Amino acid sequence: MKIVEVEAAEAETVRIVMQQAFAEYDKDVIPSGAMQETTESIQASIADGEETAAVCYLENRPVGVVRVREEEDALYFFRLSVPPEERGSGIGSALIRWVESKALQLEKETVYCKVRAAAPHNVRRYERLGYHIYDTFTVDRLEWPAFDVIAMKKKIPVEQSTHE
What we know:
32% strand, 7-stranded mixed sheet, 4 helices, alpha+beta, Aminopeptidase
């Protein structure tokens, strides 16, 4: 298993793996916005420095992705994506460890994500990895019924020596 931070030119790989993983939510009353994202939008976001993305490879095959936005004192990860046939082999956990390592490298004190309340299995997964709920809110858009979101975070112990 190898995790690589990718360049904008690899946005197609990010989109394909992400949409394979999120396809199961496409039939939901409130489908995931991941299915509407395009290679071009992901490519532009990476090229503009709005986000970074990492791809997990297993035997040179992309099997997972995560996207990250850097904030003042935190790293926000989103669209953690592992296609159903690849789940259960530690890919998601490895990608989260990559995000946490990136946070340490950037001297960020917190890593956080947002999870749909309708996906309690994801909330439990992040809790097992040391994340805790710090906020809940409702997303209300005209085109869909309102839905609840759970925000979860984890404090990252930034080494004292990096501040000396």
